Amino acid sequence: MNSPFSKRNQTFLQLLPIGAFLLVSCWGSSAELNAQLLQPMTIDDPVQIEIQSIYKLTQSAAGTSDFEQIVQRCESLLEKELADKDRTYLTKLIGWSENRSAEKYIQNAGALMQMGLTDQAEEQRQLGIGKFDHVIQNHPLNWRAWMGRALVHVQMDQYEPALEKFRQVTRLNSKNSNAWFNCAEIGLHLKLYEQAIADYSRLIADDPTDTQARTGRGHCFFATHQFELALNDYRTVVSLRPDEAIALCNAGDAYMKLEQWSDAKFHFEAAIEIAESSLALQRLADFHVTCPNHGPADTGADPKMAIALINRAIAKHGTSPDILKTLATAYRATGQFQMAEQTLTQARSGADSDSRLPPSPNREQNQSPID
Fold first, then answer.
1. Do 42 and 75 form a contact (C-beta atoms < 8 A)?
2. What angle do CA 262, 266, 268 make, to 5 degrees?
3. Residue 272 pLDDT greater than 50, yes or no
4. Which residue, among 47, 135, 125, 66, has the nearest Cα to 99 in the 3D structure?
5. Phi, psi of 323 (to 5 degrees)
6. What DSSP string describes 286-338?
7. Residue 185 contacts residue 20 (beta carbons within 8 Å)
8. CA distances from 247 to 64, 216, 295, 298, 310 (A)
């Protein structure tokens, strides 16, 4: 199964080609921050005049130097005698600025990596990591810093610490659905199925139409051989998104495991009608070499048809180890044992070369649970 990591909303992190998780900026806009914190000021008070000036800078700040300037000016003010409300505001504004600075460093790292400047990209990423860690150390109750740091862990394929930090976000902000979703997705990836099911179920309880959460939970049920429960989730997704080929393939996979062959074939053929994807063609080919009673009778399973389907998939989308394994099975079913062995050898070679590939975190492309 491809990795579940996916995005629910536009991400603030312009990460490396593997992508990012989700959510808009961890901290929101400066206007949101100041609308919550900034109180009416006495304009002849030098402290309040400086706070107003800093506030204006937050509205135009764009680069790391701008955010560093905000931090320095806030720290300078904190050395003075201040009202409690002003001290609280400036402290929170420092955390906001440091977090935005961290975000910007990570964005810079992504841009540099895409330009092939790996050393400079790593330098920017480490600066961003340092900023996030500094905010967490000094503002441990601020969930946004934990979220940002967790996203960088994901970028670096460090899923266990990412899960720990996303879980901390849920403790600090229990209504943050993005954090719950990330916990679920990592749980699925790490095969922590019970935890993942609980996290997905929480999301589904809040929004029964969340097709991505239902797909993820369906994958968990599928992986733990709870095929009826998986089918229930997959069918719900199909009902909500009837024109999504992957959803139809997922349902077909569950029908296959339940040996409901006619329903499986129907869903695979429907998926091909929507989008003649490599996945849909392979799934129908799998059906033709897995279903009992090969031949035009009954369900119409036919290994020769499987060979034709796989060749269509290869011609249109290229090859992959999984596709070649299905093709080898079809060759064996038709008595072409030498071709089957040659194809399996090619599949093993391709699997070795692809084993380093990271999972794709695009939530919009939840894949079928069949390996």
1. no
2. 120
3. yes
4. 135
5. -65, -40
6. HHHHHSSS-SSSTT---HHHHHHHHHHHHHHH---HHHHHHHHHHHHHTT-HH
7. no
8. 43, 11, 27, 25, 20
3-state secondary structure of 368: coil
Angle between helices 118-138 and 143-155 (to 10 degrees): 150
Give tens-digit pLDDT for 166-212: 999 999 999 999 999 999 999 999 999 999 999 999 999 999 999 99
Q: Which two tokens stand for residue 333?
A: 């079913």
Q: How far is CA 213 from the centre of its chain?
A: 11
Residue 297 pLDDT > 90:
no
pTM here is 0.79
SS3 40: coil
Written as six digits, the tokens of 136 are 């967490």
- The Cα–Cα gap between 306 and 301 comes to 9
What's the token pair of residue 242?
Answer: 């009837």
Secondary structure percentages of the chain, helix, strand, coil, to 5: 70, 0, 30
Give residues with Cβ within 8 angstroms of 363, minimum separation 6: 4, 5, 6, 7, 8, 22, 185, 212
pLDDT surpasses 80 at 340:
yes
